[in-house]
Amino acid sequence: MPLRRSKVLVKWIFENQHKFQTVRCCSSSLRYKEQLEETSAAPELVAPAPTPNAKPRPDLTPEISFKYDDLRVSLAAPYQLQPKPEVEELGFGRYFTDHMLKIYYHRALGGWQKPEIMPFENLSIHPAAKALHYAVQLFEGLKAYRGRDDKIRLFRPELNMERMNLAAQRSGLPMFDGDELVKCISRLVQIDQEWVPHSETSTLYIRPTLIGVDPTFGIQAPDSALLFAVLSPVSAYYKKSRDGAVSIFADPNVVRAFPGGAGNRKVGSNYGPTIEATSRAEKLGHQQVLWLFGPNHELTEVGAMNIFIVYINEHGDKQLATPPLNGLILPGVTRRSILELASQWEDLTVKEEVITMNNLIELNKQGRLLEMFGAGTAVVISPISRVGFLDMDVNIPTMKQPAPVYQRVKDTLLAIQYGHIEHPYARIIS
Ligand SMILES: Cc1ncc(COP(=O)(O)O)c(C=O)c1O
């Protein structure tokens, strides 16, 4: 066929192809057939429709959890390896290592599939995936520390696993055996161990994430999910002001969490809506938001950290206090560790108690408020020297204490994390 005629024919077919379709997509009589076709043409993430009486595939792990023993590893080729940045350039979560962990869950295939470590790659995800629309997702944050003995340690990873499973339950995502995930993550860190900074001011941040990926708009428990973990070498999280502390802004018009909500779970939907308030605080010269709740302006958290104060109590003793876990507060691993460690220090009373803005202002006026600090994995400890509230500036003498509690807490945590002292909180993985 001469070239010109064939070009005309191709153009005609292109323009008229819709006329060849005998079935329109909304035809209800053919719905079942279409569903089958859609399923077979669906992308990789979608589980095939279950075939009645089909035998389970022999390589499936049980519904209850994936298993470390099933882990498959494919290493990056030399050309896929990324250059490692200098410690000074790290920032927070800007660079990623060479490998990642992926574990799919497909209810139709019996549940959790085999874990896989593979070269770092972008995800391919259906545009209707529930994680993208209804935040059916959760994440965690823990770190791998390179100790002075060159050994790599994790800090209480079992607590992150517990928190992950609680968040999964809240969002209808599949739960799993936390020990198995810690083993898979430990293997990932071992493979990328040269990415764990050779420095005690930097660490390798581990971000396990679980997302609902099935491609349907219904607000229901997802039938398919993806658990992945990526690693990022990090240094400082927050900018500090000149005195080494941060200034925070307490805006009584915004809340981070509410009773019956999911403020006590590490789900993405708690974080996106904090951005506007944080930007407003920054415009007013503060670094973070102090999250208040209720008519008494109770302190709940600061930024993405748990909040602590140190003050002289009515008996004249030094008291370390943090608000109780009342459903509005994320049960921080650092928070719990501080409470456990400091309650063994005889010169300090440790209490979980409600703290209101009025309490804080009164204690400060009476000269009894000594310190205020935030605590979390990303920052460890972040001393606070100023709180903006209504038209006031509450200046807190955190940086003026001769032997501040925040520093003692920080030194103790870092000593455990970097192996200066042997402690059951630290788990050597390499
Ligand atoms: C809202 C919030 N509070 C507190 C924390 C501190 O928790 P952790 O000590 O487990 O890092 C975090 C960090 O994960 C957080 O996002």
From TrEMBL:
Required cofactor(s): pyridoxal 5'-phosphate
Annotated SUPFAM superfamilies: D-aminoacid aminotransferase-like PLP-dependent enzymes
E.C. no: 2.6.1.42
Superkingdom, natural source: Eukaryota
Database matches in Gene3D superfamilies: 3.30.470.10, D-amino Acid Aminotransferase, subunit A, domain 2
Pfam family, any one: Aminotran_4
Region (Disordered): 41-60
Catalytic activity reported: L-isoleucine + 2-oxoglutarate = (S)-3-methyl-2-oxopentanoate + L-glutamate; L-leucine + 2-oxoglutarate = 4-methyl-2-oxopentanoate + L-glutamate; L-valine + 2-oxoglutarate = 3-methyl-2-oxobutanoate + L-glutamate
Keyword Amino-acid biosynthesis: yes
Xref: InterPro entries: Aminotrans_IV (IPR001544), Aminotrans_IV_CS (IPR018300), Aminotransferase-like (IPR036038), B_amino_transII (IPR005786), BCAT-like_C (IPR043132), BCAT-like_N (IPR043131), BCAT_family (IPR033939)
Record keywords: Amino-acid biosynthesis, Aminotransferase, Branched-chain amino acid biosynthesis, Pyridoxal phosphate, Transferase
Family membership: Belongs to the class-IV pyridoxal-phosphate-dependent aminotransferase family.
Name of the protein: Branched-chain-amino-acid aminotransferase
UniProt organism field: Chilo suppressalis (Asiatic rice borer moth)
